[in-house]
Specification:
Alpha/beta knot; alpha/beta; elongated; single chain; five-stranded mixed beta sheet; 6 helices; seven-stranded parallel beta sheet; 12 strands
Length: 236
């Protein structure tokens, strides 16, 4: 069944009109008609079943047949701060796959060795919306504006389990070694040139635990996805 993103849908509503873009997609592209049913997600946990009662190409009207709050809500919060890659396609790939697997928050972090320092979040958000619909999720991950490494480090709350994945040959731990279920987690993933020694030192001084994501040398986006998978797996 087709899924539509409806962030302005109030949970108390029993009738809803798709915006012009979604109406056109519903009526002209998918050619859905009166009586056809679609799923709606609001990005904050609301999952709805709607039935078309007016198939207008600019304002398709639906009656809400059923609704559910906190659809497939998880008991943990995963925040990955990732240095934008030189090739933005790789970050787009990560955001798509991480949204499908399960992530709650992403922050592009600008580091000393970052090759890309500007990120246009509008396109990235569209990719995440598409992945949310594709994977039948009702929560849209929060995509923050880019932050510098230092500003991110200083803004982390005391109730967060903090990890940094770096390539400098020092002692590191597996995530599972210090893991607690159903908590808040922040994982720092560096750029292609890795974090600088100074950045690693700052992170350690601020309570970040150095971790390994395996014996292979991973690309930035692959490392981030591996971390995402591990947290989801350990919370299963």
């Amino acid at each position: 069944m087709h899924v539509f993103y409806t962030p302005d849908l109030n949970f108390e509503e029993n009738v809803y009109v798709l915006n012009e873009e979604e109406s056109r997609h519903c009526s002209k592209v998918l050619r859905l008609k009166i009586g056809d049913r679609i799923h709606l997600v609001d990005g904050i946990g609301g999952f709805y079943l709607g039935e078309i009662i007016e198939d207008h190409p600019k304002r398709t009207k639906l009656t809400i047949v059923s609704k559910e709050k906190d659809f497939n809500k998880v008991a943990f919060h995963l925040h990955i701060a990732i240095a934008p890659t030189k090739n933005i396609d790789r970050i787009e790939w990560f955001l798509e796959k991480a949204t499908e697997i399960g992530i709650q928050e992403v922050t592009p972090v600008i580091c000393e060795h970052s090759e890309r320092k500007d990120v246009k979040t509008e396109r990235l958000e569209k990719i995440m919306v598409s992945a949310m619909k594709q994977s039948l999720k009702a929560y849209l991950p929060k995509l923050n504006k880019p932050q510098t490494f230092k500003s991110l480090i200083s803004s982390v709350g005391s109730d967060v389990h903090k990890y940094i994945a770096h390539c400098i040959p020092t002692e590191k731990r597996e995530i599972a070694d210090s893991f607690k279920r159903e908590e808040k987690y922040l994982i720092l993933i560096g750029p292609e040139g890795d974090f600088s020694e100074k950045e690693v030192q700052i992170a350690l001084e601020n309570g970040f635990v150095p971790i390994t994501l395996g014996k292979s040398r991973l690309r930035t986006e692959t490392a981030a996805l591996q971390a995402c998978f591990e947290i989801n797996y350990l919370n299963r």
